[in-house]
Amino acid sequence: MPRREPPPAALPPRRCVLLEGTAAAGRAAASMLLAEFAAPRCLWLGAEPPAGFDRGPAAAVLGQEFDALVLDAHAGFDPDACGQAAGTLRAGGVLLLLTPPLADWPRFADPEHQRIAVHPLSAAEVSGRFLGRLARLLAADSRVERRHADAPGAALRPPAPRPAASPALCATADQASAVAALVRTARGRARRPLVLAADRGRGKSAALGLAAAVLLASGKTRIVVSGPRLDATQAVFTHAAAALPAAQATRGRLELDGRVLEFIAPDALAEATQPADFVMVDEAAALPLALLERLLARWPRLAFASTVHGYEGSGRGFALRFRRTLDARTPEWRALTLETPVRWAAGDPLEALLARLLLLDAEPVDAALIAEAQPAALAIQRLDRADLAADDALLDEVFGLLVLAHYRTTPLDLRHLLDGPNLAVWVARHDGHVVAVALAAREGGFSPQLAAAVQAGQRRPRGHLLPQSLAYHLARPEATCLRAERIVRIAVHPAARGRGIGRALLAHIAAAAQADGVDLFGSSFAADPPLLAFWRGAGLLPVRAGFTRETASGAQAVLVLAALSAAGTASCAAARARFCQSLPYQLSDPLRELDPALALALLCDPEQPTPALEAARRAEIEAYVAGQRDYGSSVAVLWPACAQALASQAATRLDAAQAQLLLRKVLARDDWAELVRRCALPGRATAEQALRSAVGRLFAST
């Protein structure tokens, strides 16, 4: 097991120096203040830096260490880049933040506004609420050293050099405990995964590498590491190589006497057949939940590591959602949290400051305070976003709930929440506390000329997902001329779910939109059957399923729609009819890899009566079920009959295995060998008999 480093001397705090003034004065002052710093040890984000300084993008420098970081907000304040880059600043380092005078910053023409503006508004029409909140917090925080760019004071002193830590040794007791836990998981009983959680800078990736080295040195022959991308796992290989100096290292691979540590991309790993002694998934919160579930099912010994509070999204939401899967499939899973920082001191003032500025530490209200919340007693309202930006407690509850429910929420989402021009923030409150939150975007209202250009694929006006999808994918160009309200996100507190609170909030938003003359009400989301059932329960029906899996979620996006006006009713009905007509055909080609449970949830309308069969077709189907006709001779009758029946109440008679058989063989048109493999059946004879039984069940009482 790797030894621990000797306890270090007390680490100096990191500092934040704010330089207010013009862009030119701020940049000149920053260069002067850093005159004694070695240029390669300084990172400059924003405008073109002075000669010798490293320049972002921030994501490209992850894993490196710097003594100084310049964030030039005159070139635009990107909250995600701020969070990324600040993690590279070591103990004793300084963050120089270049801004306009704080009193003027909310009205500053920030170049980042271009990313937030939506058609037909320009960047100049984006609000400054987010920057105003930053200015207010920076002005009031004693941890911030405010200086004027025209009189910046004496040059800063670089932090004292520190002895280089050995990457082969554990830096903290936390890290040593994590290495030991990882080794025990790899050597222990199967189906007992470890979930390793840590804030940034706690050395979790290093722990993975050190554990891999221990396992290879002790005789394990193949360790696999995975993550969102190879570069994100580089620290794993760096620390493993340091602990195994005799190993041969190449990009994404480490070999020692025939024993291997290698990187495999997550999607390939889920399908891999070559055995592995242990699988480690780094930055698991950045992977789709569906993909993590496939990895959990495929590999008997594995560990997941995730960041709890980070610029890339919150591991808290990941842990909440993934915990349900772990409890159901591997109830003996274990969790471990790393608390002690490696790169800076515990209680570092800059870490605390950035957590407050970017709301990396936002939390929803304590469950006990909303335990009695019921839909009928809720106070539902649209928030004034200027008031929201000024109310720290309320913003914490709103953003904390979004972070918990959507684990891809990042600081940039906070800026969109406060400044998005077509966005509204709705909340449901119990005793003043936020129980549910929804973000709604007002879309559409295009001219006929723009609508035609959208349908032809010539224009894609920013910020109008719902009408553009209806026009381009469903050939409903008139829908872009209608006004639409799209639910961008909705979250209900975990302690208050299952009571109808989400549906009550949606009904209130829809009623307000209808009163405002809106025609359509919809949403687009990464679908699974329970989520689709929620939206159906709220009166919104699917009208489109994306043909490819979303990168972020690993699932197909589904568009759901409801009508709020007569014009909306006609457009919605036409879109729904086209979807119902097209979906059975799509399941045999662009959607043939769709999860069967989701395919059935999209197809089946439990309120649709079972279609009647004419006598001749019924006789053919009965002959097939009885074994008097083979599948090839019956498919011309089975395909249309099954497509209609699966879209009706009849589908509710099927169990999951029967539904999968019908969807895979009849609609997706798998050959028998593929059907046997997908449905885990012993052979073709069993598959044929099971299919006959499923068809018989589907048409049992027609």
UniProtKB/TrEMBL annotation:
GO biological process entries: rRNA acetylation involved in maturation of SSU-rRNA; tRNA acetylation; tRNA wobble cytosine modification
Domain N-acetyltransferase, first and last residues per copy: 378-567
Name recorded for this polypeptide: tRNA(Met) cytidine acetyltransferase TmcA
Primary site of residence: cytoplasm
Binding site for ATP: Q175, R343
Homology family: Belongs to the TmcA family.
Reactions catalysed: cytidine(34) in elongator tRNA(Met) + acetyl-CoA + ATP + H2O = N(4)-acetylcytidine(34) in elongator tRNA(Met) + ADP + phosphate + CoA + H(+)
Organism field: Plasticicumulans acidivorans
UniProt superkingdom: Bacteria
